[in-house]
Amino acid sequence: MPNATMLKFGYPASTVAETALWSVQVRPQQPTLGALVLVCKEPVTAFGQLSPAAFAELQTVVARVERVLARFTAYQKINYLMLMMVDPDVHFHVIPRYEGVRDYAGIPFADAGWPGPPALAQAVTLDSGAIAGITADLKALWVDVP
């Protein structure tokens, strides 16, 4: 069963990949192109409550996310934000960072915060078509990039 955080971020339509304990989803508000949420499926609300299995699987998922996003956005840095102020389930916002602008389907995605903290308030809000397109492209890379 998906948890409330997975559903809030558009599960299952926004899902790039799932493992036994994690869901990788496209973030509907994109502060940079390729922004994701990485949501733990365990019923925990604090990072320290994750099982050893979830911690172990997190390493594998993060490594794959980084390889996929490197191909998708050619990011220069990557930020992982664990805010959990509104959505209680353990999750990270994954923000690829880059100087300049990336384009997707004619939509420009500037990293407005570069080189400082990400400018979350200046995100591009994706419509359902753009979410579907980015999700499909990232899914294809997930399969293609080991």
TrEMBL record:
UniProt protein name: HIT family protein
Signal sequence interval, chain numbering: none
Domain of life where this protein originates: Bacteria
Any Pfam family: HIT
InterPro entries hit by this protein: HIT-like, HIT-like_sf
GO terms for MF: catalytic activity
Domain HIT span(s) in chain numbering: 23-99
